[in-house]
């Protein structure tokens, strides 16, 4: 999330992924003010203008929040309320309106007082390092950008080298150039690049990549032991021990370690973990929760505001919280375990 402090009460934000939207859902509350750009249909007073038609114009409005909800799970945020100010005099104050906030949309949030947990959520979104993952072989290449616990894929790139018929005329540098062109659409300034895949193609690509002036500024790491390329290679890497070692500070790596620990405790028939919302709610009442992972399933299948209140309450106690989604194997595993799991400080009998 890109953030800019305006004054002690107002902060401008721009969500960069679904995690950021979820954090904003937890931050924005009833009676906060949200300023952003939107469109409204304005009736025309011109001669010959049709009375039933209006012109859709872009306006900046300030909204006093009455309701906020995740729209289509984690892809958009709906912020509804009453217009208190606007940049167009034709927009009446006191009328109702809704912002649909999407990734890369900017808004300014004004609160009478920012709570420490709200500031922490903004900072945690702002300080995340993103990784661009490249799973390459002579046949194909998969590219995905990992930020937090969310993977964004671009379509696989195919070299055309497969089959004896093409091998004699195959130019691998043309394939590498295609890959670099695709990378230029996803790479951002502070991203780290990780390259893996079967054979020696990954090393040849890195040599090619680092000779290109536009790409010399990026830190590149080659990972051995991932014997798949394309999208399958990306998924294999995100489940590997190599990922946990290289990205030890990344949220996905931390969430993966927690899931591994939960599975280990389950096999030992230990009571120092929970699965599902009810068990976790009870453990939180006992003050036993140490770290928690939840997926979009728990939001879909329960009262959204109840979940948001619960997450904020838990985090205010110092519990480490990680959200995951279906873009990764970890998200699918958490969903299959009831949408929420936690590690406990001590065993709790239900």
Q: How would you characterize this protein structure?
A:
This protein has 350 residues and is an alpha+beta fold. The chain has three domains: 2-126, Pelota, domain A (SH3 type barrels, Roll); 130-246, eRF1 domain 2 (Nucleotidyltransferase, domain 5); 251-344, 60s Ribosomal Protein L30, Chain: A (2-Layer Sandwich). The chain has twelve helices and 16 strands. The protein has helices at residues 18-27, 116-126, 164-167, 172-183, 201-211, 230-238, 241-246, 251-267, 277-285, 296-300, 304-316, 329-336; strands at 2-5, 10-14, 33-43, 54-71, 76-86, 96-101, 107-110, 130-136, 140-147, 150-158, 192-196, 219-223, 273-275, 289-295, 320-324, 340-344. The strands form three sheets. The chain has a seven-stranded antiparallel beta sheet, with helices on both faces. A five-stranded mixed beta sheet has the order 10-9-8-11-12. Strands 13-16-14-15 form a four-stranded mixed beta sheet, with helices on both faces. The model has no long low-confidence stretch (mean pLDDT 88).
Number of strands: 16
Q: Uncertain segments of ≥5 residues (pLDDT<50)? A: none
Mean pLDDT: 88
Helix content: 25-40%
Radius of gyration: 24 Å
Largest sheet: 7 strands, antiparallel
**Topology pattern, helix = H, strand = E:** EEHEEEEEHEEEHHEHEHHHEHEHHEHE
Strand order of the largest sheet: 1-2-7-3-4-5-6
Oligomer: single chain
Distance between the termini: 39 Å
The helix/strand class is alpha+beta
